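Thread: zinc ion complex, take 2
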Amino acid sequence: MNAGQCAYPGAWPGTTVCYSYDRQEWKRCLDTAWDEATGALTWTHAAESNVVYYAYFAPYSHERHLDLLARCAAAPGVEVRSLGKTLDGRSLDLVELGNPEGSSVWVIHRQHPGESQAEWFAEGLLERLLARSDGLTLDLLKTCRFRIVPSMNPDGAFRGHLRVNAGGANLNREWGPTGDYAAPTLERSPEVLHTLGEMDRVGVDFFIDVHGDEARPPLPPPPPSSSSSSSRRVQRRIAPRRARA
Ligand SMILES: [Zn+2]
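Output below.
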């Protein structure tokens, strides 16, 4: 195996390979082992079918992305529109719902396209908001305007990239000039440029950037006293065109 030559071998320690027979239900090969010296990732699996699929994370396909958008577009009070085009000409899709006059809540997902679990998160979030079946959801929809980007990097997802877009840019390093290069630009990172343009137009009161991190244990919720520093971090993150996340 050549796992040592991948874009981010630092993720292999502790990882467990996913497998599926039908690409719907995914389970883990818990005995996955990583050998840094040889660059080999190995696992044993007594397959119960001649057809079996292995994956780093449970995939979230472009087809499923389009199905999700269709469900959103068919729901009352939900607007689905394109923020612009990616380098490969795909649509950068935005889902909006809630009170148009409410606080502007942005949730973006999957800047790193290999982190497919981030788009599963988007699907769960949207399904809960669309269901309007609990008091918390109804309160939030009354007081907030949700602006949700389920997939920030559809080109990278389609091409099978782990970290970058079609032009090789790591979108999470494109939210402001770095000193080494101008960012975001239409040539390097239209995904971020279009998103920031809409943020400037409609405003941002709250922002979440959803990633998937296989190396990190589940994070506990922050204590109440940390809310102000979280707020400052969010402000730095989106503060436009200067922050490096
Ligand atoms: Zn990430």
